[in-house]
């Protein structure tokens, strides 16, 4: 079967890989209907994160179950499923508390490379959720979004305690930030300030429910958020970048007692303890427990209440994955969908 | 009137100071019944925090109202009152959200020096809470504790979301940590692990409701907490020290999705973003909004449901404040009460 492999920064190739098989009785193998390229895939692509040799890529996927192991009970061959990037048993104490990405038995699905024709998913019962039936083709991008970027934006909005009456600021205008806007809107936020300086992303933010756009960033961005909130700062801030600047922008844009939900994978971030202490904010985030939200998100998508698939502004055949990486890297695409 | 003034690290003197008067119509002047020395007073005493010249000391106080400004309506001369270390209007949006220490009009009461015979308290209506009557002498220490250490330990327990069914770990065995134990117990925590290697503090922790004592600290302490919690970490961790080691001990002792409530004033703390991200914990803390809790805490003390005054293991006349600082510094006393 064909699959994308990263050999070095800037070097992604689609090549023949071994056909995955059931290894554990709790496994499933799925035929990938759609996969995509994640902002976090760009860290090794840009050489910021070290690669350990040639690495199969991709951790976002939807597809049709080909085969399940003998112990799998909740999904069966032929089901259309959405999964998340960490396999989880969904039964341990941590999972039951809603933190499936920290499951005591978690396994990174991405290690198997989801940008491929077939994918082995461990702990299938705890990881995959079947849709109510075979989806219309135009629902597939949204279901794929649920697998990571929507689930992550949603978690950030929940972690930031967005909701009715709240003013929410969103730092980061990538797919996750934009879907954080969508999530905040769905969760009933009163005012949603998207921080973006790109016209196409601003437009999508407004479609997803943003009420204000702030183009400034860093301290100027913070000042603007303060200006829009009677000097207090936002109640809820979603951080979806993962740099020192974006984290500080998020913390400083939040009022005392407010909530920062941060989901940008932290790179070279160091939080000054004293400033954090005196800020009085709540901080919560990390790798999003997408599995917690999948049933709800699939339902919203199935009912066409939300259309998160709009973040995909470039669709390519899997064979052209390298072009997809280039487009994401150069920010000519927000999010690239790959069709095996 | 007499009051304690710090001239330099290790140099605290009780001397004549100007008698405070009503400056703003929202002020009150109180006759201090009891004040105390705070762990945070030790930072400048030890030369770790810079002093700006001779500094009146103390920010924890109870006393009897001598005089109020023309706009004060909720307290009157003769009332016995408990206040908090930041004066707050208790009406702004931040105060109404329960974050009075971040009030848009806040003023540090400590700037006036509470370790003295008389004290001017700004924003008296929003800062002071009157007790139901004149307290018995043996209630005074507990009411004084409410003014800071109890309120701070209570906030930490609330920020750490302690409660029924929760396992709580407490990092720090000073007065705040010990009262964090008391708070967690009152809030219904199932298991409370006090981290302490001092017999007298362990004893008090057990009296306040600790179910386990862990003597190890740092990584060994974390390992012990994990061992006591099926490898997962505590649901809730109270951090009441403020050093890099104590913060990391708190974060690492918390399970994914769990809550760290941190109230130790951060000194030279820098939190590694990546580790924090992958920890999946909630982080909340800062200067405790004691005012939020005062009515409830005074009620509990008045009904003798709690006895936080036990943390005072040394009572001295105000004139001997210097001896009190020495005792706190050398850890021969947990907490020193000063009687003007």
Automatic annotation (TrEMBL), chains A, B:
InterPro entries xref list: ADH-like_C, ADH-like_N, ADH_Zn_CS, ER, GroES-like_sf, NAD(P)-bd_dom_sf
Family: Belongs to the zinc-containing alcohol dehydrogenase family.
Cofactor: Zn(2+)
Keywords: Metal-binding, Oxidoreductase, Zinc
Domain Enoyl reductase (ER): 10-338
Source organism phylogeny: Bacteria, Bacillati, Actinomycetota, Actinomycetes, Jiangellales
GO molecular function, one term: zinc ion binding
Record Gene3D superfamilies: Medium-chain alcohol dehydrogenases, catalytic domain (3.90.180.10), NAD(P)-binding Rossmann-like Domain (3.40.50.720)
Name of the protein: IMP dehydrogenase
Domain of life of the native organism: Bacteria
CDD domains referenced in this protein's UniProt entry, alphabetically: FDH_like_ADH3
